[in-house]
Amino acid sequence: MNLVGTWLTDRMDLQLHVYQLKILIRIVKKKYRDFRLQGVLDSTLNSKMYDTVRNRLTLEEATASVREGGMQGISMKDSDEED
């Protein structure tokens, strides 16, 4: 998560391409689900870096939805509903 967070921080002034956004959303959601299933504590999973990445991807998703007209079924919100 630190690697993704650092990568996003380096590109703070650039918007993500829709393809980059879709891939990052899948990576973050899968990482969160897999580690949660393995019994990693919520306090470890919900770190400040995870919150930063999640907030950035949510913002980018909203921007892409307005700009591109939708994300074709991929959303950060899905991971919140599955908890």
From TrEMBL:
* GO process annotations (BP): dense core granule exocytosis; positive regulation of exocytosis; synaptic vesicle exocytosis
Known InterPro entries for this protein?
CAPS, MUN_dom
State which residue ranges cross the membrane.
none
Q: Name one GO cellular component term.
A: glutamatergic synapse
Q: Where is the MUN domain?
A: 1-35
One matching Pfam family, short form?
Answer: MUN
**Name of the protein in question:** MUN domain-containing protein
Tell me which species this is from.
Knipowitschia caucasica (Caucasian dwarf goby)
